[in-house]
Amino acid sequence: MSNWTDAHCHLQDRYLxxxxxxxxxxxxxxxxxxxxxVDRVVVIGTDAQTSAEALAITxxxxxxxxYATVGLHPHDALDxxxxxxxxxxxxxxxxxxxxxxxxxxxxxxxxxxxxxxAFATQIGLAHELDxxxxxxxxxxxxxxxxxxxxxxxxxxxxxxxxxxxxxDAMACLALGCDISLSGVVTFKNAETLxxxxxxxxxxxxxxxxxxxxxxxxxxxxxxxxxxxVSIVGEFVAQLRGEEVAAVREATARNTARLFHLPH
Length: 263
Fold this sequence. Notes:
The protein is of the alpha/beta class.
């Protein structure tokens, strides 16, 4: 792949129940992404509904390749996980990962024990189906490492929207996890994250938007979209003192490896 890959985005709109409206919104965003030099995206599920919508979005025709994951976000860890597990086992041809799942002790919308259980179940599912694991981790790295140690790290695992320290990054890498950077790395108050980003080997690095959240500077405060992934990638290249083309090609290649996508 010669253009940008958005390794993690949400093109679903959980507030719209009309599937046609969801598809139209996704089409428009994907067209803008293509015009901005993006040719591949991975749409991420966070519960049974958004996971089903992510799979549906992969069936849109257009110039951008679309893949999807299914998962249960830690915010929703008290929800019944069975619909998500069933969806993952359908064998959809564009299903490439489990998640996002993990632990969030910043908001703690679900009890920590429920988060750990839902996370452990989804780690097991990634092992069972030989799919990539997409992890959400916020203020919870110690427990995250504990659960991964108990359940075993799937061979293809990524910490999405990484916001940890240098030590956190090194611990993730030592476990075999890749690291994905979002627009947060461009924020004025993210110097600790930028220090960590400089340490990640280029062959373990991904870039993402996490759209519609966390738009990079200079778009901070507005809705994010896959078209902005090049802004993240270009910032990361400058931060690391690398050529933009090298970061673009490496991150696209890394995401293809992570999700077993065509090279």
